[in-house]
Structure formats: C-alpha cells, structure tokens
C-alpha cells in the first residue's frame, strides 16, 4: 500500500489526533524513531482500531512488527515489511478497585493513563523518566525508573492479552500462567501483538522532588547505599568530570515516616534553589516541579513533563545494568574513562532497580544499578566508545537496555541471560515461523 492509498483508506479516521500524526508522516516525512537517529526500513504502517483489525492484519501478513511510541534508539522495533500501530487503541478497558488493577488497550501511553488513574484515587508504583511512552512498548523492553525497592515498569503487569502469529488471542496472567507469564512480559515484541495490558495499582500518593548539586565522588564512594536508599526514587546525574556528580534528584513520597528530610546539604551536595534540567544548559521548563513542591506521583516520578520535549531530543542513548553489589566498581570503571566519554556525552544517569522474576528483564533475580548515557547524536564516535565501556563493564556481566544502543555480542547476551533458551522456545510456541522477528531479534535472540 502506498502513502496515497493509506491516506484514502484511513481518511475516515482523520478526526483523531493519532491519525493526524500518521498522516503527517504519510504526507512526506520519512518514518523514523523518536530521536530521529533511525529511519525505519519500511513505510508500510497500518493503524488498528480494534482487536478484530489486529487479528485480521496478523493473519494476512507473513512478517510484521508493532510500532509503539518509537522511543527505542536501536532497531528492536524495525521491520522491512509492515508496521502495525495500536495508537488508536488507547482506552482504559477496566478499573478494578477491589483487585487493585487497571486494564488498558496497548496503544495507551503512561501520559494518558496516569491522570485518569489519579482522578480515580490510584497510582502506579513507578514511572520512567518520561510519560510519553506506550505502556506495552515500555513493558516489553523492561523500561524502568529508579528506587532500590522499585521493580521495573514491567513488574506491574499482572496480565496480557496477545494476538499470536496465527491471529488467535491468548490471555496470560501472573496468577494462572506462572513461568509462561514471567517469560512473556518482557517479550521484546517477539511473541505477538500485545492488545491489552493489566497493571497493578495502589492508592494515589503525593510526592516532593528535591535536587542537590555537586555531590563529591568521595562521598559517593563512602556512602553509595545510603545515598541510593535515601528516598523512594533517587537518580544521580554526572558528566564524569571534576570528581563530582552534577545533580542528585530525590523523589520522596509525602507520607509520615517516609518523607525525605531536605536539609540544605546532602552528603556534601547543596540543595538547588531553582528548578534544574539534568542537562544543565537546557531549560527546566521541560522538567517536573522540584524544590519540594508537593504534587501527584505522576508529576514527580518522571523527570520530564508530558506535553514538553523530554531529555534533549536530538540525542542517542545507551544504558547498562550492573548487579547492585558491583555498583561502585562499575561506576569507578566508567569514571576512569571520563576523558574518552565526556566529549561525546550530554549527561549520564545512575539509577537503582529492584530484582524481579521476568525472564528477559536485565534485573532477573538481581537488584541492579543502571549506568545510562545520553550521547550527542554522533553514532560513528559513540559506536567506537561503546565497546570500550562494555569491556570495562564485562566483569560485572553488564546487561544492555533492550531499547538503547549497544554493541554487546549475541554470545555475551546468551551467557548473561540464563532464561534465553527458554525464551526462544516460548517465542517459537507462539510464533513458529518468525512472523514477529526482525534483524534485531534474529541477531541477538535467535541467532
Ligand atoms: C527521551 C527518552 C527517555 C527515556 N527514558 C527511559 C527511562 O527512563 N527508562 C528506561 O528504561 N527507558 C527509557 N527510554 C527508553 C524507551 O522509553 C523504552 O524502551 C520505550 O518506552 C519503548 O516503548 P515504545 O512504545 O516507544 O516502543 P517502540 O520503540 O515503538 O518499540 C519497542 C519494542 O516494543 C514492541 N512493541 C511496542 N508495542 C507493542 C505491542 N503492543 N505489542 C507487541 N510489541 C510491542 C516493538 O515491536 C519493539 O520491539 C527512554 C527513551 C527516550 C527517547
């Protein structure tokens, strides 16, 4: 189907802003990921409006990928054949206050879900740095926020409805499907089209966010655990220079006994007196409110505000998960590379994530810290640097973020993901012919 046919076929849906976005692409722009560093390999993009449309499309096609909100930096979402977009399917299906769950259509983003949940008196346990991303895409790539007691976003999933390669709908739940469910949640888009996701919810809560500037590296070395555990969610930002961490973001729940005591100094860092962006040169207007102003969980857990550009925009990202017991060694290993890293960097972020039991989660059976890099958009330079960083982090079995840029070999991935062979079997059960596979999956998972 060419662009003209696409416009004709879907002109009936123009009223929806989603479709307008799709039409913006159809009117000439190349189909790219959010950061613009990746041009997808086909422009065949079909929006689905219903479960029947998903099933029909999957039955007809021999190869396809679902495209979420396109926030991955690598080719995990890419297809040479067809894309299915669930963007028009962005409704809440059911809120169950008794069971404390919410079920949503898979095209919904956190930015759409969170205000609704809050208005009903509920919250999610955690969010990523931005609310703009699709819930299904985030869960399937093990997207995470921070907090020593907080599992990644996929750990909130308690049930999935997936259209498998034969067009059939399967329902998997934590309660009924044990290991199969734990294998399917971080599914890397390999099992089928996630049509609905059910998430655990909890009573809504308020938060305060504080930012401290210039935490001495010496203090981090001495007090890493105390710093990371000082509040519900803690993020450390650094450019790796001057033996200090540029900013410490502390997100505290406003609850008696749990609230963070915001003293003017925090392990040698100074409490900021104005809102800041993690990349100091950029406007804090794009960031969630700081300086201890109380606000709802969904306006404090992400760093970036819905409706504003998150992070820098024109950038690349990489991120590595390291077991918590090696946190300091790993941080210091990267710090030693500072003069190679900093020239290509916008900012790095260090976060903590609790262990989980999801097969393909980088936190499978191990609590982790993550070392994240927001790079300037210079892939030739970054691609030379990643193997250097990966070599330093290899002794800690560092696992790359599934949705960001890495050069870790498929052989290394196999050696650090104990459940990978079982995941391959599970994928083959639901997709025997490899309908949902692409170059990324063939190389890193099935190769
Ligand atoms: C500015 C920025 C900030 C970020 N911050 C964080 C962060 O704080 N923490 C973090 O961990 N990551 C972060 N990321 C990474 C990223 O957000 C996730 O990996 C991303 O959310 C994936 O979701 P998506 O909908 O954009 O997926 P896409 O990139 O569109 O697709 C990713 C994968 O999901 C699959 N998929 C999507 N929807 C479905 C579906 N319905 N059924 C089956 N498969 C599906 C695709 O086929 C593909 O395999 C950030 C990215 C950006 C650009």
Total strand segments: 20
Q: What structural category arises from helix and sheet content?
A: alpha+beta
Can you list the ligands bound to this structure? flavin-adenine dinucleotide
Largest sheet: 10 strands, antiparallel
Tell me the radius of gyration: 21 Å
Estimate what percentage of residues fall within beta strands: 15-25%
Report the uncertain regions: 1-21
What's the number of helices?
13
The level of helicity is: 25-40%
The end-to-end span amounts to 31 Å
Shape: globular
| Average predicted confidence as pLDDT | 93
Secondary-structure topology with pairs:
Elements: H1 3-10, H2 17-26, E1 45-47, H3 51-60, E2 65-67, E3 83-85, E4 92-96, E5 101-105, H4 110-119, E6 122-123, H5 135-140, E7 157-163, E8 169-173, H6 174-184, E9 193-200, E10 202-203, E11 206-216, H7 217-228, E12 233-238, E13 244-253, E14 265-266, E15 269-271, E16 295-296, E17 316-323, H8 327-335, H9 338-341, E18 345-353, E19 368-375, H10 379-393, E20 399-400, H11 410-416, H12 420-430, H13 439-446
Parallel strand pairs: 1-3, 2-3
Antiparallel strand pairs: 4-5, 5-9, 6-10, 7-8, 7-9, 11-13, 11-15, 11-16, 12-13, 12-18, 14-15, 17-19, 17-20, 18-19
The structure holds flavin-adenine dinucleotide (FAD).
Flavin-adenine dinucleotide binds next to strand 2, helix 5 and strand 9.
């Amino acid at each position: 189907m060419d662009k003209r046919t696409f416009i004709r076929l879907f002109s009936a849906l123009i009223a929806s802003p989603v479709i307008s976005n799709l039409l913006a692409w159809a009117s000439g722009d190349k189909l790219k990921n959010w950061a613009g560093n990746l041009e997808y390999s086909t422009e065949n993009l079909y929006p689905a409006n219903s479960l029947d449309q998903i099933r029909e499309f999957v039955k007809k096609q021999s190869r396809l990928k679902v495209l979420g909100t396109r926030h991955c930096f690598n080719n995990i979402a890419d297809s040479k054949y067809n894309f299915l977009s669930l963007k028009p399917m962005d409704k809440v299906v059911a809120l169950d206050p008794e069971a404390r769950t919410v079920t949503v259509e898979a095209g919904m983003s956190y930015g759409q879900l969170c205000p609704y949940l809050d208005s009903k008196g509920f919250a999610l346990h955690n969010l990523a740095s931005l609310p703009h991303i699709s819930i299904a895409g985030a869960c399937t790539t093990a997207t995470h926020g921070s907090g020593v007691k907080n599992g990644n976003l996929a750990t909130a999933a308690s049930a999935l409805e997936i259209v498998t390669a034969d067009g059939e709908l399967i329902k998997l739940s934590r309660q009924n499907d044990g290991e199969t469910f734990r294998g399917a949640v971080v599914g890397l888009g390999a099992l089928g089209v996630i049509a609905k996701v059910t998430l655990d919810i909890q009573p809504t809560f308020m938060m305060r966010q504080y930012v401290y500037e210039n935490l001495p590296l010496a203090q981090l070395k001495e007090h890493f655990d105390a710093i990371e555990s000082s509040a519900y969610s803690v993020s450390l930002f650094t450019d790796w220079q001057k033996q200090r961490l540029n900013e410490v973001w502390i997100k505290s729940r406003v609850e008696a006994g749990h609230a963070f005591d915001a003293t003017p100094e925090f392990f040698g860092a100074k409490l900021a007196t104005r809102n800041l962006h993690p990349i100091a040169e950029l406007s804090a207007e794009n960031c969630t409110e700081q300086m201890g102003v109380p606000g709802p969980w969904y306006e404090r857990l992400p760093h970036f505000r819905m409706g504003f550009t998150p992070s820098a925009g024109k950038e690349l990202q990489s991120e590595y998960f390291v077991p918590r017991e090696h946190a300091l060694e790993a941080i210091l290993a990267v710090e030693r590379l500072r003069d190679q890293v900093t020239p290509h960097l916008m900012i790095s972020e260090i976060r903590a994530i609790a262990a989980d039991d999801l097969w393909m989660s980088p936190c499978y059976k191990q609590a982790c810290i993550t070392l994240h890099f927001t790079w300037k958009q210079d892939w030739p330079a970054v691609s030379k640097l990643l193997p250097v960083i990966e070599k330093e982090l290899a002794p800690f079995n560092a696992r790359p973020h599934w949705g960001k840029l890495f050069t870790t070999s498929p052989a290394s991935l196999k050696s650090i993901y104990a459940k990978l062979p079982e995941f391959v079997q599970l994928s083959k059960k639901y997709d025997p012919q490899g309908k949902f596979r692409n170059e990324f999956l063939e190389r890193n998972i099935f190769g």
